[in-house]
Amino acid sequence: MSALERTEKREFVASLAAVFAETSIVVVTQNKGLTVAEVTELRRRVRAAGANYKVAKNRLANLALEGSQFEGIKPLLKGPTALAWSEDPVAAAKVVVDFAKTNDKLAILGGSLGSQTLDASGVKALADLPSLDTLRAQLVGLISTPATRIAGVLQAPAGQLARVFGAYSKKEEAA
To answer: For residues 90 and 51, what is the distance between their CA atoms, to the nearest angstrom?
Structure first.
């Protein structure tokens, strides 16, 4: 092994360790014969969701996992594996699970949400949750809805009073 290969491997391990320090979820998948076009489509979908997908040598990934909160996924790193990760705890799981539903050549082995190790069904359950952006939008909707209802309720009696006063004034004018 040349010094250049060793340097490249060290840099790869260091960059993957930095990813593990910053991310909130890692999903481990196994490629069971995906074509280049299918992998390209998967990578495009993953990027569009704000996540990352990388094929990693298991030995190097194990080195990068040392001391990280994701050490629980080490037993999953056997055979042709790839890692998907994102800062949004749902994005990586959602895009990989959605792709696996339409392509049986991608198997989900499991993952880790922080220090909590997940099996394949745990990753699928996580993928069913709404994304962080969706949750934020729902929360804003919940917060703003009562305000609009309160404004409507407060305006309704005032409008009714105005109509009653208007009716009385028309009645007095007619008399």
So the answer is: 10
Amino acid at 89: P
3-state secondary structure of 129: coil
Beta carbons of 53 and 82 less than 8 angstroms apart: yes
* Ordered per-residue pLDDT tens for the chain, 175 residues: 566 588 888 888 888 888 888 888 999 999 888 899 999 999 999 999 999 999 988 999 999 998 888 999 999 999 899 999 988 878 889 999 999 999 989 999 999 988 888 898 888 988 887 766 777 777 777 676 666 666 665 566 656 656 666 676 777 776 6
**CATH number, domain 1-128, options 3.30.70.1730, 3.30.110.10, 2.170.150.40, 2.60.40.10:** 3.30.70.1730
What the block records as the tokens of 44 is 């495009």
8 A C-beta contact, residue 30 and residue 79: yes
